[in-house]
Amino acid sequence: ETGVTQSPTHLIKTRGQQVTLRCSSQSGHNTVSWYQQALGQGPQFIFQYYREEENGRGNFPPRFSGLQFPNYSSELNVNALELDDSALYLCASSLFLQGEETQYFGPGTRLLVL
Amino acid sequence: AQSVAQPEDQVNVAEGNPLTVKCTYSVSGNPYLFWYVQYPNRGLQFLLKYITGDNLVKGSYGFEAEFNKSQTSFHLKKPSALVSDSALYFCAVRDSTGGFKTIFGAGTRLFVKA
């Protein structure tokens, strides 16, 4: 096990709703990244938080937002859900060094948007 | 721009035979390269990484990978496959020039037949 947990494991929402996904990082890890993994694809980078501030973002619209807290937990918020948001959402925690650090992934939250 | 290609959707190998899962990459600076494995309904598990140094990297569960700068490849290998190695394998790259973003390949499904 990686020591990274995510909740909930599964979630069903309808189009237009808002959702919050949660992640608990490994103790001491100052960086968390969020990924979207659509069915049959590799994980796509959404954004990264370092010491509670966003320090990088992939090609995702602003309705994808996040928070990182001092207690090593974090959230991914998605507003105005669309059908294409259906995917497995993964968080990964790491201790930021110079980019070579290993990321430890949680089991993911599977989101279905109807 | 960074990119990763895994040219094979699926690799089939008999138990006890050597296996190779291919990966090629493109980055502007020096690459940080990673291999992860994903089992059904699980998050990604770290196998190994290349940062610098010896081109042959050894990782978990008997896996190793060979970094080839001239061919921009980072193929995953194992001398003797096990049925339990059957899973989805992802190659990932990060750019050493200050990049925070990890790019994943689309994944290769490994099927080991008893």
Which features would summarize this protein structure in a list?
heterodimer, A: mainly beta, seven-stranded mixed sheet, four-stranded antiparallel sheet, B: 114 residues, mainly beta
Structure in a nutshell:
With 114 residues, chain A is mainly β. Chain A is 0% helix and 51% strand. In chain A, strands 2, 4, 5, 6, 9, 10 and 11 form a 7-stranded mixed β-sheet that branches.
Give a structural overview.
The complex is a heterodimer of chains A (114) and B (114). With 114 residues, chain A is mainly β. Chain A is built from no helices and 11 strands. In chain A, the strands form 2 sheets. In chain A, strands 2, 4, 5, 6, 9, 10 and 11 form a 7-stranded mixed β-sheet that branches. Chain A has a 4-stranded antiparallel β-sheet with strand order 1-3-8-7, with no helix packed on it. The model of chain A has no long low-confidence stretch (mean pLDDT 92). In chain B, β8 and β9 (73-78) form a beta hairpin. The N and C termini of chain B lie far apart (41 Å). Chains A and B meet through β5 and β10 of A and β5, β6, β10 and β11 of B.
